[in-house]
Amino acid sequence: MHNQVIGKPISRVDGRAKVTGKAKYAAEFTAPDLLHGVVVSSTITKGRITHIDTGDALALDGVVKVFTHQNRPKLAWFDMSYKDLDAPPGSPFRPLHNDRIKYNGQPVALVVAETFEQARYAASLVKIEYAQEPHETDLQHHLDTARKPASGLASLLKPPPPKARGNFDKAFTEAPVQLSTGYVHGFEHHNPMELFSSTVVYGKDGKLTIYDKTQGAPNSQFYVSQVFNIPFRDVRVVSPYVGGGFGSGLRPQYQLFLAVMAARELKQSVRVSLTRQQMFTFGHRPATVQHIDLGAQPDGTLDALRHAATAETSRFEDYIEVVVNWSGALYKAPNAQFDYNVVPLDQYTPLDMRAPGGVTGMSAIECAMDELSYKLGMDPLELRLKNYTEEDPNEKRPFSSKQLRACYQQAAERFGWTKRSPEPRSMREGHTLIGWGMATGVWDANQLPARAEAVLTVNGKLRVSSATADIGTGTYTIMTQIAADTLGLPLEDVLFRLGDTDMPLAPFQGGSLTAGTVGSAVKIVCEDLGKELLKLARKMPNSPFAKAKFDDVFFVEKQMRLKADPSVRIDLQTLVDQNGGRAIRTTATSMTNSLKQGKYTRYAHSAVFVEVQVDEDLGTVKVTRAVTAVAAGRILNPKTARSQIIGGMVWGISKALEEETVMDHRYGRFMNHNLAEYHVPVCADIHELDVLFVEEHDDVVNPLGVKGVGEIGIVGMPAAIANAIFHATGKRVHELPITLDKLM
Amino acid sequence: MKPFQYLRPTGVDAAVRDLTAQPDAAKFIAGGTNLIDLMKEHVEQPTTLVDINRLPLATVEELEDGGLRLGALVTNADTAYHPLVEQRYPLLSKAILAGASAQLRNMATNGGNLFQRTRCYYFYDTSMPCNKRHSGPSQGPAGCGALHGYNRIHAILGTESADGNVHCIATHPSDMCVALAALEAVVRVSGPQGERTIPIADFHRLPGDTPQHDNTLRPGELVTAIDLPANGFSHYNSYLKLRDRASYAFALVSVAAALELERSDASGDQISAARLAMGGVAHKPWRKTEAEALLVGQRPTPDVFGRAADALLDGAQGYGHNTFKIELAKRAIVRALSQAAKLEPTE
């Protein structure tokens, strides 16, 4: 590949469409005679529906039907059919299945009317009576019921805790310096700006075209096909733009089920959009309780490490995330023990949320390491370097690449870490206490198989497509760059499309794996197209390419050229003409090299340094500056990559200081279920954010050498902030978010 | 949202007539920044909206006594940035700008600001018990969910009713009204019985056993203007707002502090007049002249400020999650008074 645009800070190719409103989202597609569905949500947490009165709702003008468990169509019987591609082990929630209420906010009716306003009003008139049963929702009160989670397909990408190594108990007991600490995190909800919506267009032949908010159109297609027993070819799911996902779109949400059900029953197109309050009625980042024990030598060498986590899940599925494994991979600690358990409660199943488990576990271990550094009287960065490992101690295998040391060095230098005064409360200006803290970030660099198609059109333009998603990350842009460079075309001659099940299959967008996964497919399919072009060139009369192999040519400036003699060249347009003026089309699959990849642990790393100002009397915290250095392999586009890291850093500020869904456990109901009271940062909360990309070469992770940057930006941030707050105030807060009352 | 009738009168008398025609079921609407939300949530279910935006109430006028009349329909943004408000009532300008967001302040009006309803989670969720919202089964169950529930943002003062019970611990969410309380503004209203004026201190009320009533307006009355007295305490004032993020969040505690200082002798200043009001702590802006009296004649020192804070917070009662507000409020008062006296910088 002749790099012209890869590695350049190209502005988003979809930017103009987005800022001009041309980009259409799931609820913006329409159809003739579109009906509107509004969901009625349960107001109790556990029990049975004893009576539903839909009379007043049905009496209103424009109301077409009210669906409840009493009149829903017969659907697939087995649990298996309700399992989407990201379903954890268990029995997936079925909307309107029966009279049982399993969690607060559960959908209990769908009101369908000719206008949205009619449906919304009618929904308020549906009267539901319940027989309540006692519920359990408070993780901290039910830790005694913790148990091992069931394992399933999810464990492929989410390995269970590593096996214990050495003898933790003995090593911890004998360690001259010991630390036992714990951290509690509350619920969080993804709350992408775009509300979950599905517009189901009912075709004349009963075929469905579904505009869905999803991080993977193929997953929605699979789910609908299974549940409603419709062949794949009769369900097309389209999702060209997604207004934020953060993991919430990894599983089909209940509005999809309800909209499809209504459209099929009424034989008419239907749209269902959730309200902001209803955005709090499905997956969320689980509440977690963690415990960490560290045993160290006076010089900081870790002898013993124990990391245990307990997280909530629903009664019907065992959601898991990787919380404790990171500690064991990051630090040598020859004697180590890990534990991860779940507590089933009367709630909806949790769902991956940006750096799921990673930001949770790393927040705990990196705060614990900070605590230990003060016990040892040692610089927190020095303690990390003391226990730095070039090999993954969990798996006893090398890293495919690990430039974490360079991250520490470069970020520390940019931040000015050496000027830090080590004592807590030793830096101040008037009432303002100043604190400096640091932490480490780690995240997976996984690759999955993916497919893509490339077409060189009769006009010499390149069209590439794959059924992946762009949830705002910049996928459109980087895929366009990869395709452009592979075939030597200018960006404006390349159109990359995604989010449509008519396109070649790709995994959902999540886990920071799209750049490497779909990027590899795009690279390979464009190379395959190049091979087709070479074949055409070789067939030309007296072709100077007659004996050329693919390795002998390169593509640049809309031409194929011989490496040995670049003056030997041919326009791609000429090759299309040579093809009888017909477009040239190839499809390819990028497979993972499991044999090679399995020999390495593949992680992206980061080092984060943060300055906070804390008002000594009032407890208010301001993150005045933060530096993150990231080693994530090759950076395809420093501009979109930087945006991803900054987004993660902002979310780190949110998690550390502001964000939590609060439940009134008497009712089992989330109380701050709107964006006025569920706080995430506003512009005034954000000050200087600095991002460095550390050079890192990796031939193992995928053919492009990219690790993905979707999650790594958030991972180290909350711990760095909490550590800076301790340095400023001398107060260690063990429960996030660190609101002002906890610092008074 | 329940269907409603929409009227758009052009005169004050017509607007009052429109509302009086169905006093229980009609609501005035101006900016709508709070009412529309509440209607979507079915917390408010008016059958008629009387849009008053065409009424001639959108001017700021100087009064003969040196005060200023703020029309009810002047937006919060236009008020905060009005040159006369910035010069003579900077405390009011600061308080307004501490609230909401630029977009909301562009829509919200001065009259409407007085009618902001509480941000209590239980009030907003019609499946939760709430005495303030409750006026029939369509608006959810009675009781106070917050009292023994999640009450981090709730009141610490003035919650007890005459019978010794607590029926509501909601707070009034306005920033502007806290400054108006400190400045002793006067609310001008027109109603079926003609015009009258209400001192701001008497405009909002404590919950008692009728928390559904936020204010003392009579049926059909319309706020036409807010009068500011001549003294705007423009030299020594501070509006300090503490909240869970730097902008676009309601106050956990806010303080409007205003002082007049006189050079008493060579050794320093003495307080000759003081005003002190708090937001986020009660069902109305919280002010006690006894606390202010403790400041007058004293030198501006943290000790003196602390005594005023104790007096203003006398009788404060926490309900669990919000108990931290008592200490936070005390520290905030001391800080705000120190800022007003220019002993501390303002952010």
From TrEMBL, chain A:
<dbReference type="GO" id="GO:0005506">
    <property type="term" value="F:iron ion binding"/>
</dbReference>
<dbReference type="InterPro" id="IPR036856">
    <property type="entry name" value="Ald_Oxase/Xan_DH_a/b_sf"/>
</dbReference>
<dbReference type="Pfam" id="PF20256">
    <property type="entry name" value="MoCoBD_2"/>
</dbReference>
<dbReference type="Pfam" id="PF01315">
    <property type="entry name" value="Ald_Xan_dh_C"/>
</dbReference>
<dbReference type="InterPro" id="IPR037165">
    <property type="entry name" value="AldOxase/xan_DH_Mopterin-bd_sf"/>
</dbReference>
<dbReference type="InterPro" id="IPR016208">
    <property type="entry name" value="Ald_Oxase/xanthine_DH-like"/>
</dbReference>
<dbReference type="InterPro" id="IPR046867">
    <property type="entry name" value="AldOxase/xan_DH_MoCoBD2"/>
</dbReference>
<feature type="domain" description="Aldehyde oxidase/xanthine dehydrogenase a/b hammerhead">
    <location>
        <begin position="20"/>
        <end position="134"/>
    </location>
</feature>
<dbReference type="Pfam" id="PF02738">
    <property type="entry name" value="MoCoBD_1"/>
</dbReference>
<dbReference type="InterPro" id="IPR000674">
    <property type="entry name" value="Ald_Oxase/Xan_DH_a/b"/>
</dbReference>
<dbReference type="GO" id="GO:0016491">
    <property type="term" value="F:oxidoreductase activity"/>
</dbReference>
<protein>
    <submittedName>
        <fullName>Molybdopterin-dependent oxidoreductase</fullName>
    </submittedName>
</protein>
<dbReference type="InterPro" id="IPR008274">
    <property type="entry name" value="AldOxase/xan_DH_MoCoBD1"/>
</dbReference>
TrEMBL record, chain B:
<dbReference type="GO" id="GO:0071949">
    <property type="term" value="F:FAD binding"/>
</dbReference>
<keyword id="KW-0274">FAD</keyword>
<feature type="domain" description="FAD-binding PCMH-type">
    <location>
        <begin position="1"/>
        <end position="233"/>
    </location>
</feature>
<dbReference type="Pfam" id="PF03450">
    <property type="entry name" value="CO_deh_flav_C"/>
</dbReference>
<protein>
    <submittedName>
        <fullName>Xanthine dehydrogenase family protein subunit M</fullName>
    </submittedName>
</protein>
<dbReference type="InterPro" id="IPR036683">
    <property type="entry name" value="CO_DH_flav_C_dom_sf"/>
</dbReference>
<dbReference type="InterPro" id="IPR005107">
    <property type="entry name" value="CO_DH_flav_C"/>
</dbReference>
<dbReference type="InterPro" id="IPR016167">
    <property type="entry name" value="FAD-bd_PCMH_sub1"/>
</dbReference>
<dbReference type="Pfam" id="PF00941">
    <property type="entry name" value="FAD_binding_5"/>
</dbReference>
<dbReference type="InterPro" id="IPR036318">
    <property type="entry name" value="FAD-bd_PCMH-like_sf"/>
</dbReference>
<dbReference type="InterPro" id="IPR016166">
    <property type="entry name" value="FAD-bd_PCMH"/>
</dbReference>
<dbReference type="InterPro" id="IPR051312">
    <property type="entry name" value="Diverse_Substr_Oxidored"/>
</dbReference>
<dbReference type="InterPro" id="IPR002346">
    <property type="entry name" value="Mopterin_DH_FAD-bd"/>
</dbReference>
<keyword id="KW-0285">Flavoprotein</keyword>
<dbReference type="InterPro" id="IPR016169">
    <property type="entry name" value="FAD-bd_PCMH_sub2"/>
</dbReference>
<dbReference type="GO" id="GO:0016491">
    <property type="term" value="F:oxidoreductase activity"/>
</dbReference>
